[in-house]
Every structure is written in C-alpha cells, then in structure tokens.
Write a structure and sequence with these properties.
Oligomer: single chain
Largest sheet: 6 strands, mixed
Strand content: 25-35%
Low-confidence stretches: none
Radius of gyration: 15 Å
Helix content: 25-40%
Mean pLDDT: 94
Amino acid sequence: MAGAVEAKLAELGLTLPDVVPPLASYQPAVQSGVYVYTSGQLPMVDGKLAVTGKVGAEVTPDEAKELAKTCALNALAAVKSIAGDLDRIARVVKVVGFVASASDFTGQPAVINGASELLGAVLGDKGVHARSAVGVAVLPLDAPVEVEVQVELVGAQGVFEK
C-alpha cells in the first residue's frame, strides 16, 4: 500500500519510477545515520534521456525545468530504495542541481526550480531545502540537467546502513 507521499504523487498525476541503474561504479543512494544522499540523477525515463544538449542552445529553459522535475522524481525513487517508504522523509536538507549551459546562459536557478517545486508540491514543508544551482560545460551522456538530493529520515538508526 502506498504511503501519503506516493498518494500525493498520484494526485499530481505522477508515478514514482524505478530506480535508474548506475551508469558507472557507484550506488544510486547511500545512507549514513539519519541521512540519505542520492547520486546525481539524470532525467532518465525508461532507461533513456529524452533530450540531450546544452540549456540555452539545443534545450530551452522551460524544457530543462521539466527535466529537473524528472531528475527529482528519480531522486525520490533512489531515496525510497534505501528508506523503504517515502513517508520516512523528515525533510529534504539540500538539493544540488547542475545545468549543462550554453556559454551565455545564466538561468540555472530557474531550471533547478523544476526539482525544488516538485519536492515542495509532494512533500509540503518537508520539501523546503537549501540549494545550489550550478552551470557546467557538459554532463554525463550529454544530459542537460543533473540533480542530487540529501534527505533526513525519521526512524533512522546506526552510523551506516545499506
């Protein structure tokens, strides 16, 4: 049975995807104490990037904002793979977003708002977080956006768990 967070996703017309398999030697998420840290999540849907290229060139800022939302959904899937239930999220602590940017593009914060707004819509006050939005020259697979998330869990114990 889905919890309140997944019910909210469904209410918003969204479905939590499967965890995106790692592209290299890392885990999608790890837990240390009460925190879960996700690896950078690309806007993968069904194992593929729908769009590639630089924001401000081949990819519009609005498209990139939607892709950041997809990254956040993938991050939530990675968190669930560790926490077992998204209702265990006490709060989103930090979001770091990377935007593969054309040389004159400066709208990185607006792009990463796609991830931040999704987390707020799904988690309410628990989704309010600190954030960085960084422009970079290129991302893996020529993805336009990559997002990583740190969350605090309720009911977490131990220094290290899966």
